[in-house]
């Protein structure tokens, strides 16, 4: 039975099972595992906040660039209309 389990999980799977059993059975290990899980979660949340801030900054920059492009297009239309009106005279 253990041979088939070892073949199914492989060495890393057996190591993971051993760690889970050790953490479940030992209060000091459980406390340490919880502390590590909290730190890892804080890290993930920090990365997510930075990514959100970066995307917000990119959106703001894109909106500014779009505004400049709209001004450029409007100026080109105005100049084109003025040239057309001048050519009609």
Description:
- The protein has 89 residues and is mostly helical.
- The chain has helices spanning 2-25, 27-88.
- Helix 1 packs across helix 2 (27-88).
- The N and C termini lie far apart (98 Å).
Quick tags:
89 residues, mainly alpha, 97% helix
Low-confidence stretches: none
Structural class: mainly alpha
Strand tally is: 0
Assign an overall shape.
rod-shaped
Report the radius of gyration as a whole number of Å.
31 Å
Mean pLDDT: 84
Strand fraction: under 5%
Distance between the termini: 98 Å
Number of domains: 1
What is the secondary structure topology, with strand pairs?
Layout: H1 2-25, H2 27-88
Helix pairs in contact: 1-2
Concise description?
Helix 1 crosses helix 2 (27-88). The chain is built from two helices and no strands. Helices cover 97% and strands 0% of the residues.
């Amino acid at each position: 039975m253990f041979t088939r389990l070892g073949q199914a999980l492989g060495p890393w799977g057996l190591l993971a099972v051993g760690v889970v059993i050790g953490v479940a059975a030992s209060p000091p290990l459980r406390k340490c595992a919880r502390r590590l899980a909290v730190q890892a979660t804080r890290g993930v949340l920090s990365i997510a906040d930075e990514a959100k801030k970066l995307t917000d900054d990119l959106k703001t920059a894109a909106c500014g660039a779009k505004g400049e492009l709209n001004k450029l297009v409007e100026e080109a239309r105005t100049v084109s209309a003025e040239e057309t009106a001048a050519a009609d005279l």
